[in-house]
Amino acid sequence: MSEKNVELQISYDTINTQQNTLDLTMIQRTLIRHTRALSSSIRSAPRTAISRPQFIPANRLPARPLASARWYATEPEAKKDSEPAAAEGKTEAKTEDPVKKELEVKEREIIDLKDKYVRSVAEFRNLQERTKRDMQAAKDFAIQKFAKDLVDSVDNLDRALTTVPHEKLNASEKSEHLQDLVSLYEGLKMTEGILMSTLKKHGLERFDPSVEGEKFNPNEHEATFMTPMESKEDNTVFLTQQKGFKLNGRVLRAAKVGVVKNS
């Protein structure tokens, strides 16, 4: 083969190779262009939501048996909507303000302490009043034992005065012995008056319920006997056998008396 023919053959092979490469490039570009066009057409296509209506109008119902119709209620959806709200309420209830809670605790403590303070003040005042009364009672009745022993001597003095007859005291003519009796009586009477005045200053008093015809009082009188008397009312004291004594208003010794009982 000549050298010229070899050169022509090489040129022809080169041209074929270039032609094949060009064809592949064109094919690739064509495929890429078609692919892009297809992608753009898919993206631009409208998306239709496939949804099933909850309520179908009567005029649009398909012509099929009613048994195959499907109906959908909205109550479960409402329940689902209410569940998040209830959950939020529970979350708010659980997440209370700690400052508010601590304030409520402090308020309860203040109320408790105030109640205890008021009770303590009341108890202290009651203790003061009770102590004051006890001290006054101890002061008023300090001579109670002495007064009980003294009333017997006062009774003996009173009996001595009652033994003197009134006729002798009121006699128009008085002998020497009778005059001495009257003087003794008057002296004892004065002594009794001074003694009773002194005892009264210390709170000890004597009382005679038959003088004013008092009603029988079981707290101050002791009935020794009862008798009917038409001129007096029932339960009236008509006789005093032993006079009573009071110490600062408290009965030291009850008076022994006779009471009227008509019925």
From TrEMBL:
Transcription keyword on record: no
Name used for this protein in its record: GrpE protein homolog
Spans annotated as Disordered: 75-100
CDD domains named in the record: GrpE
Keywords recorded for this protein, A-Z: Chaperone, Mitochondrion
Cellular localisation: Mitochondrion matrix
Record family assignment: Belongs to the GrpE family.
Gene this chain is encoded by: grpe
Gene3D superfamilies registered for this protein in UniProt: 3.90.20.20, Head domain of nucleotide exchange factor GrpE
Gene Ontology biological-process entries: protein folding; protein import into mitochondrial matrix
Pfam family, one: GrpE
Listed PROSITE patterns: GRPE
Known function: Essential component of the PAM complex, a complex required for the translocation of transit peptide-containing proteins from the inner membrane into the mitochondrial matrix in an ATP-dependent manner.
Comp. bias regions, Basic and acidic residues: 76-100
Lineage: Eukaryota, Fungi, Dikarya, Ascomycota, Pezizomycotina
